[in-house]
Amino acid sequence: MKDPYQVLGVARAASADDIKKAYRKLARSMHPDMNPGNKHAEDRFKDISAAYDLLSDPAKKARYDRGEIDASGAERPRHHYRSHAAGSGAGAGFGGFGGRFRDFDVGGSFDADDILSDIFGRRTGARGRGPARGANQHYSLTVSFVDAALGATKRITLPMGKSLDVRIPPGSDDGQTLRLKGQGAPGAGGGAAGDALIELTVEPHPFFKREGRDIHLELPVTLPEAVLGAKVTVPTLEGRVALTVPPGSNTGAILRLKGKGIPGTHQCGDQYVRLKVMLPDKPDAELQEFLNKWARSHDYDVRGKAGMA
Question: The whole model's pTM is what?
Fold first, then answer.
């Protein structure tokens, strides 16, 4: 028989959480469903399960640590009671396998299948206890910024060749998971199919940035548009709209387009347009001559105003 601490690879002072984590990790890797036909893995899984059965029960663990019971849970003769430093083992207490893995409880409510159900998407009881739900299946889908914001329908083809129409709800965000009920792996014994879980990846937009339900955009404007004011066209999620640039606008000025952001259940977000004043690409002799004359009588200290002088 094997010492349950050694089977799980934990110290004798390990906490209940550490013991559970060690069990989960080992049970996932050694479960017979993950190792079909592997007798060594099956035997190892029996030892792992029996070790956890003992160490997860505070009363059994305490009695084992005092040497009152062995690794199978059997009583020791009183003259053999001792404090364990290393010890016996577990497999014998997992009797009644007969090629099938029995259930066991900890604290009256723990089922070993619960820990493994996230791997297989079903109860291990499907091997003999009736209908079992199919496993959930995970997929990824890349969508454009505009499709995620406004909503769209995309057709995807699953690995087995089945095509599905996926509705992207308006306002979907990067990393969001959509659930298609009943489109996962088929169930066993008449059980329901699992679900298809589709994680969205939203492509970045060349000039839109999302913050919550608001859209932010940096808009280049010319020097005359900024100084004199102008009507310009601005891209939005639903097309171009007119925007009034007030006279005397500067780089960093922010204008709001109400309701032009991400659609919401009750109301849409807004679009915020940040102006960026752009000079001509090439030096303009006429502009330089004008500014030379203008600057002589219109000096102003922008760095001093900003506290940088």
Answer: 0.56
